[in-house]
Design goal:
Helix content is 22%, strand content 35%. The protein is of the alpha+beta class and 334 residues long. It has two domains: 164 residues, Roll (2,3-Dihydroxybiphenyl 1,2-Dioxygenase, domain 1), CATH 3.10.180.10; 147 residues, 2,3-Dihydroxybiphenyl 1,2-Dioxygenase, domain 1. A hairpin with a 5-residue loop joins strand 12 and strand 13. The two termini are 31 Å apart.
Length: 334
Amino acid sequence: MLRRTLLAIAVLALSLSASERQSLVTAVDSICITVSDLDRAVDFYNRVLTFEKVAEFEAAGEALEHTTGVFGARTRTARLRLGEEFIELTEYLAPRGKPIPIDSRGNDHWFQHIAVIVSDMDAAYKRLRAYKVQHASTGPQRLPDWNPNAGGIEAFYFRDPDGHFLEVLAFPAGKGSPKWHKASNKLFLGIDHTAIVISNTEASLRFYREVAGLEVAGESENYGTEQEHLNNVFGARLKITALRAASGPGIEFLEYLSPRDGRPFPPEARSNDLIHWQTRFLGGSAEETARQLRQAQSALISTGVVTQPVEQAGYRKSVVARDPDGHAVQFVER
């Protein structure tokens, strides 16, 4: 299915002129994560990473079922803020989904994380150790100066209570958005991007750039012992491509040039499974979005355009699809 989607997106991008293509995305609103226990997850993100809960609601009914593709769904969702960015944590009260595979690795294609920017990596790592987080990296890594686009960046991967990968990241002077370098007394500043493992950069660009309308913001090829120990993947060599909308966190592609043994996204995965992350895009007409996704023969998670209870959701309509590697993306119309 994913290979057919890749081919269809390629044909669509070639058949449409630049003037005919319309950007589906105006901003990245939030990153949504399925969790097993909402209270535990909110406590972790609040107490350890200083996210602030700004809303919580419970949902059930046809709109939820048609959006998630999960019949009989009942959910609790909390919206959390860090700096100017948002995440949403959703627990499925019914039906319960599957846990993250215990042998998940950094190059498996269901990998996704958020990169939380910190003002002091040593202090951040000390705090994470005090809370006994599960390491995913050997320890904080400083990327080498020979790499002009990544040199001097410090990063560390760890896991939340459900096993989701997370990253803390510190930019040196001259790298990253200027807002990350403003004077602050806070340790955790906000979310720079969400990173996804992909199988082919050009195919993913055809979806996120040519169809969705994001713009490439930077590229890098990373390898060496620091990258291996950051991702905890021996022999890791990555092609990294950063994309952005007009506002909100960026999307970062991680294509493993080696090793290429990462497992594909499970085709049977559903929104209530804990490997489910969902990047929420703000855009224009949901019907036009659905039309373009159908032209691209993108696999849909939702049954189509779904009208939402705006007082809860904060938007009127949405459609949820999968990218060429299976990552979930939600396009919403306010």
